[in-house]
Amino acid sequence: MKRFLPTGLLIGFASSVLAANPLDDDLRSVADFGAAGDGKADDTKALQAAIDAIPAAGGIVFLPVGIYRTTAPIRLRPQLRLMGATRRSWGSAPGSGTAARA
Questions:
Q1: 99 touches 8 (CB < 8 A)
Q2: Global pTM value
Q3: Is the pLDDT confidence value at 72 over 50?
Protein backbone atom coordinates (compact mmCIF):
# COMPACT_ATOMS: atom_id res chain seq x y z
CA MET A 1 0.00 0.00 0.00
CA LYS A 2 1.38 3.38 -0.99
CA ARG A 3 0.97 6.21 1.47
CA PHE A 4 0.95 9.88 0.54
CA LEU A 5 1.65 12.89 2.70
CA PRO A 6 -0.04 15.80 0.92
CA THR A 7 1.71 19.09 1.46
CA GLY A 8 -0.20 21.16 -1.05
CA LEU A 9 -2.33 22.55 1.79
CA LEU A 10 0.78 24.05 3.34
CA ILE A 11 0.90 26.67 0.63
CA GLY A 12 -2.30 28.10 2.08
CA PHE A 13 -0.30 29.02 5.14
CA ALA A 14 2.71 30.31 3.19
CA SER A 15 1.75 33.94 3.51
CA SER A 16 1.38 33.70 7.28
CA VAL A 17 4.61 31.70 7.60
CA LEU A 18 6.55 34.21 5.53
CA ALA A 19 4.92 37.14 7.31
CA ALA A 20 5.99 35.70 10.65
CA ASN A 21 9.54 35.15 9.42
CA PRO A 22 11.80 37.66 7.72
CA LEU A 23 12.57 36.95 4.10
CA ASP A 24 16.22 36.53 5.00
CA ASP A 25 15.44 33.27 6.87
CA ASP A 26 17.46 30.34 5.65
CA LEU A 27 15.51 28.68 2.86
CA ARG A 28 16.64 25.61 0.95
CA SER A 29 14.88 23.98 -1.98
CA VAL A 30 15.12 20.21 -2.23
CA ALA A 31 15.58 20.68 -6.00
CA ASP A 32 18.94 22.34 -5.29
CA PHE A 33 20.02 19.11 -3.58
CA GLY A 34 19.02 16.86 -6.48
CA ALA A 35 15.44 15.86 -5.63
CA ALA A 36 13.52 14.83 -8.76
CA GLY A 37 9.99 15.02 -7.36
CA ASP A 38 8.76 12.67 -10.09
CA GLY A 39 7.39 9.95 -7.79
CA LYS A 40 9.84 7.42 -9.25
CA ALA A 41 13.33 8.50 -8.19
CA ASP A 42 14.41 8.00 -4.59
CA ASP A 43 14.53 11.52 -3.11
CA THR A 44 15.52 10.44 0.41
CA LYS A 45 19.12 11.69 0.28
CA ALA A 46 18.19 15.01 -1.34
CA LEU A 47 15.47 15.73 1.23
CA GLN A 48 17.78 14.85 4.12
CA ALA A 49 20.60 16.97 2.66
CA ALA A 50 18.29 19.99 2.37
CA ILE A 51 17.13 19.49 5.97
CA ASP A 52 20.70 19.09 7.21
CA ALA A 53 21.70 22.32 5.42
CA ILE A 54 19.32 24.35 7.61
CA PRO A 55 21.17 25.90 10.56
CA ALA A 56 20.23 24.99 14.15
CA ALA A 57 18.49 28.37 14.52
CA GLY A 58 15.91 27.16 11.96
CA GLY A 59 14.73 27.78 8.45
CA ILE A 60 12.48 26.53 5.66
CA VAL A 61 12.86 23.52 3.37
CA PHE A 62 10.85 24.12 0.21
CA LEU A 63 9.43 21.27 -1.86
CA PRO A 64 8.40 22.42 -5.37
CA VAL A 65 5.31 20.84 -6.92
CA GLY A 66 5.86 17.11 -7.27
CA ILE A 67 5.76 13.73 -5.57
CA TYR A 68 8.80 13.00 -3.42
CA ARG A 69 9.55 9.31 -2.89
CA THR A 70 11.47 8.25 0.22
CA THR A 71 12.80 4.80 1.08
CA ALA A 72 14.17 5.54 4.56
CA PRO A 73 13.14 7.67 7.52
CA ILE A 74 13.76 11.41 7.27
CA ARG A 75 15.21 13.05 10.39
CA LEU A 76 13.50 16.35 11.17
CA ARG A 77 14.68 18.91 13.73
CA PRO A 78 13.09 21.60 15.87
CA GLN A 79 12.80 25.06 14.28
CA LEU A 80 12.45 23.51 10.80
CA ARG A 81 9.53 24.27 8.50
CA LEU A 82 8.58 22.22 5.45
CA MET A 83 6.74 24.17 2.78
CA GLY A 84 5.10 22.67 -0.29
CA ALA A 85 3.53 24.24 -3.37
CA THR A 86 0.51 23.77 -5.57
CA ARG A 87 -0.27 24.43 -9.22
CA ARG A 88 -3.93 25.11 -8.58
CA SER A 89 -6.00 27.42 -6.42
CA TRP A 90 -7.06 26.64 -2.86
CA GLY A 91 -9.70 23.91 -2.66
CA SER A 92 -8.80 22.32 -6.00
CA ALA A 93 -8.57 18.62 -6.72
CA PRO A 94 -6.28 16.45 -4.58
CA GLY A 95 -2.99 15.54 -6.19
CA SER A 96 -2.39 18.94 -7.71
CA GLY A 97 0.40 19.97 -5.36
CA THR A 98 3.36 18.57 -3.48
CA ALA A 99 3.27 15.12 -1.87
CA ALA A 100 5.71 12.77 -0.21
CA ARG A 101 5.49 9.04 -0.86
CA ALA A 102 6.83 6.56 1.68
A1: yes
A2: 0.67
A3: yes
